[in-house]
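An instance as discussed:

___
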Amino acid sequence: PDVEENDVIALTIDAQGAAHFSVNGAAVGTIADPDFGRDFSGIWLSPETTRPALRAALINGSEDSDA
């Protein structure tokens, strides 16, 4: 969906590995492939990301959250 400033996009990965997306609390889609959620979130959250400053901001600036 189109998003605007201050919209909140969320990704939730369930116990089976399915990725559920929502925008401003409204469900917008699911991808059942368990590899997708891990790989997609890893773009920003993996310690090997190419955007370490963005990663730090997403995890509240804590570089020690990898443990």
Q: What stands out?
A: The two ends are 34 Å apart (CA to CA). The chain is about 30% helix and 25% strand. The mean pLDDT is 87.
